[in-house]
Specification:
Distance between the termini: 87 Å
Strand order of the largest sheet: 1-2
Strand content: 5-15%
Oligomer: single chain
Number of helices: 6
Helix content: 25-40%
Order of helices and strands: HHEHHHHEEE
Radius of gyration: 31 Å
Length: 237
């Protein structure tokens, strides 16, 4: 074998040896790091009532479950400027792609929707929000966006109060609490229907509810190897 070939062979063997050494060292390092790493604890622990409390929020349209406490427009302005304006705009006009707080008046909003003009960009609490208590629910549960659940009850009431004031729904001296919020008539309330009945007219069934199979009478569509049949009727269930 020539010296050149021998030299290349030696270089190749040396490279393999270095690679194996590095791999072995890396494996040893990973093992050592794993042993030294802190063990995870608390996985699977029973959640406490204290941990659930910030999320245990369900304020109904009629004010049911609204908590004790109160908020003012002036206090809400400070909270809004600090935590809300960055997304919803200084005056509720929306910012950075986030929703407006104040949209078009209801009549104008309805006219735009019927005419097929953009009605999504014109939405606000002054036209597509049916009840003030559920606005409090949304703010207390989800806001601010980057730190949901961090507002106290009074802070949530105050933020709600200020947003309602921005939309000209309440005046500067209005105080928001569990008594006053349900009495507010939202501009968009007429667009909503409250139905406290069942979601379905069917008899409740929890097991083996459907009897029989759909009757496919003809092929309605075919895309490649996938065919979709047209259902003529179903057996009673």
């Amino acid at each position: 074998m020539s010296k050149l070939k021998m030299s290349k062979l030696n270089l190749g063997l040396a490279a393999v040896a270095v690679a194996l050494t590095l791999s072995g060292n890396a494996f040893a390092f990973d093992t050592a790091a794993d042993k030294a790493a802190p063990k995870i604890s608390g996985v699977g622990m029973k959640i406490t009532q204290a941990a659930l409390k910030p999320w245990d929020i369900s304020y109904f349209y009629d004010g049911t479950n609204l908590p004790d406490g109160k908020g003012t427009v002036s206090a809400g302005e400070k909270i809004y400027n600090k935590d809300c304006a960055m997304c919803h705009g200084d005056f509720g006009e929306g910012a950075h792609g986030y929703p407006k707080m104040v949209g078009d008046p209801v009549d104008q909003f309805e006219a735009s929707a019927k005419a097929g003009v953009d009605a999504v960009g014109n939405r606000g609490i002054n036209n597509t929000w049916g009840n003030a208590p559920t606005l409090m629910d949304e703010i207390h549960r989800h806001m601010p966006f980057y730190a949901p659940g961090t507002l106290t009850v009074d802070e949530a009431y105050s933020a709600t109060c200020y947003v309602l004031n921005l939309a000209n729904i309440v005046d500067d001296n209005f105080v928001c609490d569990k008594e006053s919020l349900p009495k507010i008539v939202m501009p968009g309330e007429k667009l909503y229907t409250t139905n406290l009945g069942s979601d379905t007219h069917n008899i409740r069934c929890m097991k083996d509810c459907y009897k029989g199979t759909p009757a496919v009478v003809q092929k309605a569509a075919s895309i490649g190897d996938v065919s979709v049949g047209k259902v003529e009727k179903r057996d009673s269930h």
